[in-house]
Write a structure and sequence with these properties.
Elements (H helix, E strand, L loop, with lengths): L23 E6 L7 H11 L3 E6 L9 H8 L17 H8 L2 E7 L1 H8 L6 H8 L3 E6 L3 H5 L1 H13 L2 E2 L3 E4 L5 E5 L3 H12 L1
Parallel strand pairs: 1-2, 1-3, 3-4, 4-5
Antiparallel strand pairs: 6-7
Length: 198
């Protein structure tokens, strides 16, 4: 009998950058069709060495299952500010204190409006209000919604507060048009995250 040939496996590709090592990022996902893009964002952030905890609005869970983000992040996914914890902690302040960066991607017009006006009516807005971490907002929405004066005023307010905003790009939109409102490329979001955490 011939001896079985030894199969040589190619070494797995190693992360090229560990620029986010030790960083704790809260990735907040809101109810946009672009929520599926956050799956790849979790992977890239972890590959860069970051610890990623996902927070989801109720609308976001209509687009992507929380179980998907739990599998990708290796951590529990949070959406209910009143969920009972194994150890007694105030969830929104505990998460807020852990964060080096709050990354809101995708950010809908609704969530931007609530953040700009200091609302704390769900877990995402409560954490943002309670945190002193850096905040990066990445809008994604219909082009008319993005260019509406109310949305633009809310974005100006967020910038005045000190939040960073990565503007959307021109691309194909769900409504069938091509316009500004498309989520930026993952690599561009990553570069903005690295710059803020440098």
């Amino acid at each position: 009998m011939k001896k079985a040939q030894k199969i040589q496996r190619e070494p797995r590709e190693q992360p090229k950058s560990k620029s986010l090592n030790g960083s704790h990022i809260l990735l907040c996902i809101s109810g946009s069709i672009a929520a599926y893009r956050s799956c790849d964002l979790v992977r890239v952030l972890r590959k860069g060495g970051a610890e990623v905890t996902c927070l989801m609005t109720k609308a976001a869970a209509r687009f992507v299952s929380p179980l998907t983000f739990r599998a990708l992040s290796g951590k529990p996914v949070y959406s209910d500010p009143f969920s009972e914890q194994e150890d007694w902690t105030v969830l929104h302040t505990t998460l807020a204190d852990q964060a080096d960066l709050i990354l809101v991607s995708p950010a809908t017009a609704d969530l931007i409006a609530r953040l700009a006006n200091g609302f704390a009516d769900d877990l995402v807005t409560s954490v943002a209000l309670a945190s002193r971490a850096k905040v990066l907002i990445v809008p994604a929405m219909n082009d008319h919604m993005f260019t509406h004066p109310a949305t633009q005023e809310n974005i100006r307010t967020l910038k005045q507060i000190g939040y960073e905003v990565l503007e959307p790009i021109a691309g194909d939109l769900v409504c069938g048009r091509t316009g500004i409102g498309h989520l930026p490329e993952t690599e561009d979001i990553l570069r903005s995250v690295e710059k803020l955490l440098a």
